[in-house]
């Protein structure tokens, strides 16, 4: 049966959307079941994006239910389908073990891309956009540098503490690229350079320059910083950078930090058409979860879709898993009791207050509970850290609150702790890293959210202590990635979670389990729940040695 003999409706192109009309009710039901981004209550006329992926699906649907369409629209549809098939075939060819990587010019002698990096380089070159989710330490930075060699000038957007690292550790010693770090939010006459390094904190001042199309490539390092989308100033600015660049590249081993719906914001900066408008995305992929949060209904299916579309690439390392240990530390109920009256007042507002009062009180209660929990167990965490430090084991101690840091500094002062938190300037942070690598201290206190992308600590440390918990489980993966990466000499990485059965810890651990499953399905579809490796034997041995020294 062909469309001319028995059409089941009409299909026509309107701008960048397909419009379907005159669809019989029984076919409309099938249509909405297959294309779930169409509202179940919509009737008579339906629209879908004219992307390669959607056009291929429409062509497949029309094999069963032919639609009437003009000759020009039919040719356009065939071109889209052909592009989809060609793109998928070329992607599969690139990812084959026998693929031959082309030579890439611009690296210094003895430097260049490894095979898996060259694969990513070629994918973004052919597609024009890619979310690169390779595991920490896989060299995602190298892929961005290689693309910058062919798409000059390039804009690279990084977290504030990583700007100098990009230039001094990667671009200058490894490539022939020239680089300039953008200073501030006030535009000025840019010096000639191949690569311009922006911070997420200053791109909003440079949207007028980006709007001219001056930057041929925009690469977002740790792109999870854009997970709130256009609700933030940096998100709105990044939208201008993405819309006016020829190529878009996102880098992050942890693109989903909380619930799976964050991937919509992330992908909108890489390929805005792939997941469609927000309303269509949540209709097709999500459901409303507890607390009014949009959660992805089938994370594995969404992850597979992103990979099949060639928009997301992720490879993980083989090797021994991180040794994750959970220890119960002492909780100072007296410390917690100091804020009991304030906590009670906030709790009453959450339950009985107006919508605005309740929301504000809930945020304040959350902040208070986390700070109090951190302070109440701070001495217990420090006591545990002291066992390792007394044995000469370098550690990274991660927390969040300044009050907690102060307790740790007091309790561990004999070990001369170094600080890398939100209170230190970029220069102070660089000095702290240098001092740690020079072995001036074995104790490196870091903010849970200050170390993403930081390189070098693996040269000294293989033990991380999480002294305060975070609402996002992916924060831990970024933290452990500071030591679990190329250059690590130890055979095992140990991650120690110091928790208690009081305060905010039990609730955070429960929520983390849900969020972890959302992220796992999208980034690693089909892998299933990964068993946690736990071996406390060497920790028990260190504790016994510490007791023996204390009693001597």
Automatic annotation (TrEMBL):
Output the InterPro entries linked to this UniProt entry.
P-loop_NTPase (IPR027417), SNF2_N (IPR000330)
Keywords noted in UniProt: ATP-binding, Helicase, Hydrolase, Nucleotide-binding
SUPFAM superfamilies given in the database record? P-loop containing nucleoside triphosphate hydrolases
Question: Organism's domain of life?
Answer: Bacteria
Pinpoint the SNF2 N-terminal domain residues.
127-283
Task: Write the signal peptide boundaries.
Answer: none
Which Pfam families does the UniProt entry name for this protein? Answer: SNF2-rel_dom
GO terms of molecular function: ATP binding; helicase activity; hydrolase activity
Query: Which biological processes are named by the entry's GO terms?
Result: DNA repair; replication fork processing
Keyword Hydrolase assigned to the entry: answer is: yes
Check the record and name the PANTHER family matching this protein: DNA ANNEALING HELICASE AND ENDONUCLEASE ZRANB3 FAMILY MEMBER (PTHR45766), SWI_SNF-RELATED MATRIX-ASSOCIATED ACTIN-DEPENDENT REGULATOR OF CHROMATIN SUBFAMILY A-LIKE PROTEIN 1 (PTHR45766:SF6)
Name the chain's protein. Answer: ATP-dependent helicase
Q: Which species expresses this protein natively?
A: Rhizobium lusitanum
